[in-house]
Specification:
- The chain is α/β, with parallel strands linked by helices.
- It folds into three domains: 7-131, Response regulator (Rossmann fold, 3-Layer(aba) Sandwich), CATH 3.40.50; 144-254, Rossmann fold; 377-531, Histidine kinase-like ATPase, C-terminal domain (Heat Shock Protein 90, 2-Layer Sandwich), CATH 3.30.565.
- It is built from 14 helices and 19 strands.
- Helix 6 packs parallel to helix 7, helix 9 (245-334) runs antiparallel to helix 10 and helix 10 (342-373) packs across helix 13 (422-439).
């Protein structure tokens, strides 16, 4: 602890509580730091290393519990005593607690606790005790009381009753001295002599309400003389003569509890109003953001619709010239009167393969759009998968020859019939074959296989090209997926266009699934499933 002026850090959201405590502690000679939220309090605790922390539980940002926990566990912050003040009823220290049934259990670690509204005179004594733990001075367990009664016999009688019940009692020798004590450190309770209903009592009540608004005012009255109604409005209770110890203590305690409960309710209500106001502000911000997102989403939908319309128009317009090109190339390749050199024949074969691939691409684009919109419903029927595979391989024969690739097929003769849309299944296989041819090295092999697994036929298309890293395999079915390459794998697959996106939409539409298998180094296998035909039900 510092040998100089002790430093006390106050952490509280309530401005009135902060002002009262700060004023009181400054008068007592302490250096005072003030924080209105948990984050500010934590920063001050780390940078200023106060000798004591007085903290509320309810704080903005970080609540008091979180701040205490960080301070207790941070090895760079020296041990700091923590005095908790709160309108909440919290359990004894180091006992598991949670503010409500849905909250997590917490272990509150603090050194002392005083309920709000804070008894300023008592908190000063508790602070002195925490800053001097070796002190033997006892701190009364009850509230602090100032007896502003100049009748020494009456004052002494009340003081003996209250001290005997563990109250902290001050007995000033004059009204002037009572005002000085109230101005320095207000007590929790003020007992004053109102037996005469004179101006002295009225002035004392007025000054107490102004300088110490949280002090409970209880006048001592004679049952014979009625208390002035104007005075009664500013008082919290009445203590009538003669004094009986049990009754006197009960009246003071009950009045103090009633006033404290009202003040705690006020503090918690203010916190609730503030929280509700913050929630309303947040709700308005979220509503505005939601409206903006809806507007942006609407604009994106319009742009997406325009994009789809444009794509559909372009693709549709491509079909006619492509059909003309393909027809011309086919005629040239079958014209017996046309003598072509080997080079020209090779070029013609390549052109036909490219034209055929372009036709398949336009069909994939159109059918992919229809699948996304739900306009393409697969027309499932039983068919032989081996025949479909043979048709697909014939479609890509020219491409296989151009890339000098060999083909291996592994389809059992007794493979069950498939129950799916044959046209859509053929389109899936053609896309996977195009993909395998695209990434296979010259002289490589493309393998097509099929096997029955339960109620499905699993079809595979494998190539010997570069592998696909496992962490990127889920991305390749997204539109225009681009895989990351590295210096170690500059020739890795870079993009997949729309073909795999179509394959995923199509297999799902027919009740199957599609995935990829690769060790990430060499070779990739695409697999998809289609239901088997189980006959008429």
């Amino acid at each position: 602890m510092s040998t100089q002026t002790p430093t006390v850090l106050l952490m509280d959201e309530d401005a009135d509580s902060l002002e009262q405590l700060q004023t009181t502690l400054l008068r007592e000679g302490y250096r005072v730091l003030v924080a209105a939220d948990g984050h500010a309090g934590l920063r001050l605790a780390k940078s200023q290393e106060p000798d004591l922390i007085v903290s509320e539980v309810l704080l903005a940002g970080l609540d008091g519990y979180e701040v205490w926990q960080i301070i207790r566990t941070d090895k760079e912050i020296p041990p700091i005593p923590i005095l908790v003040t709160s309108a909440l009823a919290i359990p004894p220290r180091d006992v598991p607690w949670r503010p409500n049934q849905n909250a997590d259990w917490r272990l509150l670690s603090y050194d002392a606790f005083l309920p709000k509204p804070v008894d300023l005179r008592r908190i000063v004594r508790v602070i002195k005790k925490l800053l001097s733990p070796d002190s033997t001075a006892a701190i009364p367990g009850g509230a602090s009381v100032t007896i502003a009664i100049e009748d020494k016999e009456l004052q002494s009688m009340l003081a003996d009753i209250l001290r005997g019940n563990d109250f902290e009692v001050e007995t000033p020798d004059s009204i002037h001295r009572s005002l000085q004590l109230l101005a320095a450190v207000p007590p929790a309770v003020l007992l004053l002599d109102c037996r005469q209903n004179d101006e002295t009592a009225k002035n004392l009540i007025i000054k107490t309400k102004r300088s110490a608004p949280n002090t409970v005012i209880i006048p001592v009255v004679d049952p014979i003389n009625e208390l002035d109604s104007s005075l009664l409005e500013d008082c919290d209770g009445i203590l009538k003569l003669p004094f009986f110890p049990a009754q006197t203590v009960a009246i003071i305690s009950q009045t103090l509890d009633r006033r404290s409960t009202g003040r705690r309710t006020e503090l918690l209500s203010n916190r609730l109003v503030t929280t509700n106001r913050d929630l309303l502000d947040t709700q308005q911000v979220l509503r505005a953001q939601n409206e903006e997102l809806q507007y942006v989403n609407l604009e994106l939908r319009k742009l997406d619709s325009m994009k789809e319309m444009l794509t559909g128009m372009v693709v549709h317009d491509l079909r006619t010239p492509l059909a003309s090109i393909f027809g011309t190339l086919s005629y040239l390749s079958t014209d017996s009167d046309l003598e072509l050199s080997d080079m020209s024949e090779s070029l013609l074969t390549g052109a036909m393969a490219a034209a055929n691939q372009m036709v398949r691409l336009t069909e994939t684009l159109l059918e992919g759009q229809r699948l996304e919109k739900g306009n393409l419903k697969p027309d499932s029927e039983p068919f032989d998968l081996a025949t479909t595979v043979e048709v697909c391989l014939n479609q890509v024969t020219s491409l296989l020859a151009m890339h000098k690739l060999s083909v291996q097929t592994n389809i059992p003769d007794d493979l069950a019939m498939v129950f799916a849309d044959p046209h859509v299944t053929q389109r899936i296989l053609e896309n996977l074959l195009d993909n395998a041819i695209k990434f296979s090295p010259r002289g490589g092999t493309v393998a097509v296989g099929a096997v029955q697994e339960g109620e499905f036929i699993k079809v595979s298309v494998a190539d010997t090209g570069p592998g696909i890293p496992k962490e990127q395999q889920a991305e390749i079915f997204e539109q225009f997926a681009q895989l990351k390459t590295s210096e170690k794998t500059p020739s890795a697959r870079s993009g997949f266009g729309l073909g795999l996106t179509f394959c995923q939409l199509a297999t799902r539409a027919m009740g199957g699934s599609i995935w990829v298998e690769s060790d990430g180094e060499t070779g990739t296998t695409f697999l998809f499933t289609v239901p088997i035909y189980e006959g008429e039900e």
